[in-house]
């Protein structure tokens, strides 16, 4: 029996969506601390969202080329377990906060994942997202899953255009450590759809 694929619901902006994610058995929720994102939350909102979360649900804070001062401000106020870096942060930058982190890699043409895995050797995992010029993530588009090379030693978190309809296929093809969904389970940006969240979990469970 293989290891169960973990699930992260990202871009949570409402406390009820966080609680619902936990009830469904999600492993993690993602909070976006990137002001340009339609799913951005303030530290104050983030504290409200995670209040009352049951134990063993990981809270992930997503940042895009954030200033260190801002990042420290958020970490001082919000109980974040893992940092997720979505910009051009260097390995040194990712390491400086003394927290476990995930580095997002946009799957542009010719991206060298094996090289990046070495460069970000201290990362807990690499998150693979769709590349779109000028967009830091959340494109809603899938990339060609066959481009994920064999022989990556780190866990892969698969993101980019996942939906209840395609997630089982994605898990079968890539066999990622985890899948990460935001737009694919929403009514509108930042507002999750309870039925779609449940359907997404069923899709993952059907393969595990």
UniProtKB/TrEMBL annotation:
Residues that span the membrane, as ranges: none
Task: Name the catalysed reactions.
Answer: N-(5-phospho-beta-D-ribosyl)anthranilate = 1-(2-carboxyphenylamino)-1-deoxy-D-ribulose 5-phosphate
Q: Name one GO biological process term.
A: L-tryptophan biosynthetic process
Pathway where this protein functions: Amino-acid biosynthesis; L-tryptophan biosynthesis; L-tryptophan from chorismate: step 3/5
Pfam families registered for this protein in UniProt: PRAI (PF00697)
Report keywords, A-Z. Answer: Amino-acid biosynthesis, Aromatic amino acid biosynthesis, Isomerase, Tryptophan biosynthesis
Q: Which InterPro entries match?
A: Aldolase_TIM (IPR013785), PRAI_dom (IPR001240), RibuloseP-bd_barrel (IPR011060), TrpF_fam (IPR044643)
Superkingdom field: Bacteria
Could you say which EC number(s) this protein's record lists? Answer: 5.3.1.24
* Broad EC category: isomerase
Q: Where is the N-(5'phosphoribosyl) anthranilate isomerase (PRAI) domain?
A: 8-201
Which GO terms fall under molecular function for this chain's record? phosphoribosylanthranilate isomerase activity
Question: Record's family?
Answer: Belongs to the TrpF family.
What name is this protein filed under? Answer: N-(5'-phosphoribosyl)anthranilate isomerase
Q: What is the lineage of its organism?
A: Bacteria, Pseudomonadati, Pseudomonadota, Gammaproteobacteria, Chromatiales
Give me the gene this protein comes from. trpF
């Amino acid at each position: 029996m293989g290891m169960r694929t973990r699930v992260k619901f990202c871009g949570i902006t409402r406390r009820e969506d966080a609680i619902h994610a936990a009830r469904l058995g999600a492993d993690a929720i993602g909070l976006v601390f990137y002001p340009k994102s339609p799913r951005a939350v303030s530290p104050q909102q983030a504290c409200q969202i995670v209040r009352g979360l049951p134990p063993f649900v990981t809270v992930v804070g997503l940042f895009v080329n954030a200033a260190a001062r801002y990042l420290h401000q958020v970490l001082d106020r919000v109980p974040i377990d893992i940092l997720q870096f979505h910009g051009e942060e260097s390995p040194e930058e990712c390491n400086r906060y003394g927290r476990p982190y995930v580095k997002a890699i946009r799957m542009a043409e010719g991206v060298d994942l094996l090289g990046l895995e070495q460069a970000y050797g201290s990362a807990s995992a690499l998150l693979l997202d769709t590349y779109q010029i000028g967009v830091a993530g959340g494109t809603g588009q899938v990339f060609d899953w066959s481009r994920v090379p064999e022989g990556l030693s780190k866990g892969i978190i698969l993101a980019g255009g996942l939906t209840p309809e395609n997630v089982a296929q994605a898990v079968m093809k890539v066999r990622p450590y985890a899948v990460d969904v935001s737009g694919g389970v929403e009514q509108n940006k930042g507002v999750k759809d309870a039925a779609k969240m449940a359907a997404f979990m069923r899709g993952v469970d059907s393969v595990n």
